[in-house]
Amino acid sequence: MTTWLDPAAVRAFLDERHVALAEEVEAYAIRDIASRPVPETDAEARLEARRLLAEVGQAGWFAHAIPAEHGGAGLDLRACCLIREALAAASPLADAVFALQALGSMPLILAGSAAQRTRWLPEVAAGRAMAAFAMTEPEAGSDVSSLATVARRDGGGYRIDGRKTLISNAGIADFYAVFAATAPSDSEAGHRRISCFLVPAGTPGLELVKPQVLSAPHPLGELAFTACRVAEEERLGAEGEGFKLGMKTLDRLRPTVAAAACGMAARALAEAIAHASSRRQFGRPLADFQITQQKLAAMATELTAARLLVYRAAQAADAGAERITLESAMAKAFATEAAQRIVDGSLQICGGRGLLAEHPVERLYRAVRALRIYEGTTEIQHLVIAKQLLAAPAPPTPPPG
Asked: How does pLDDT run across 243-257, given as a tens digit for each residue?
């Protein structure tokens, strides 16, 4: 019987192998991840992220995000969602390490050359190479088309100049999927001015400007590209197709962000139930009070609804859907917002103990907030959903009378 995951709730969207995987990955997360000390400084978080990379890779979990022909177990989005749920419940940092392996390598999977895939993907699957995704800039977040980092033709390759900010794994990754403009900002190219490049760590002209510290342990930083030269062979896909590649990457992986939110919410709910059952006030357990029961019921209902949206989207992708834009946007928007409410409600039930730094819910409270922002804010997801709805054919109008 699982503790955090609930594959029975989403059984309609899973195959038998996923049910077995859920039990296996949760047992691993509880046994090998949940009891690890939480890093207290940015330097400790960076060291721990590299340790987790090796251990999670050795356990075989990254392989579910990599095609079988490149050293993986086969790209399986539902498996990735189950893994992220379990890891996020045990350790948001472990979840982040898994998330970036998938996010940083997806452009390579979708558009990389045979040589690039052969060089990097088996290393990603084994946890021997750490991936990163470098899109956000100081003046370009949700508005990707306004990227200021440029990649100019330079001999047989490109010279990249610019800055990236809020980049996960900055300074510790082995390679970066970097998005840069290959046409002037005043051109009529629009989104078609963006291209994507694979930039290995150690490339001259690439440096970590400074680490950026979040409230929850997470390796983050600002990168500078100064006359950073890459060969034309390091471009991922055709010139000008970077925006489309980036959006397709995010489109496919947003359900896994929603799954991580479900994992954090599930852990928080389990902690709240345990506390409410054991903590006595006014002569009886907190769980006996109807106001506590109402909170728990609402939290559990939201969690189940979020999971249904997550695995609906993931199943569609696994079934071969070319785009899951609407499904992934709904999953991410609803699940991350619901998780924030669930974690907050759990902390309220746990009371003062939930505010202590060593308490799991306190750590979740700090970690869950970022999920509503990265890979597309909730507000952007709502715009995406509305655009999809408005673009759909209008339903037939019933005849009068």
From this structure: 999 999 999 999 999
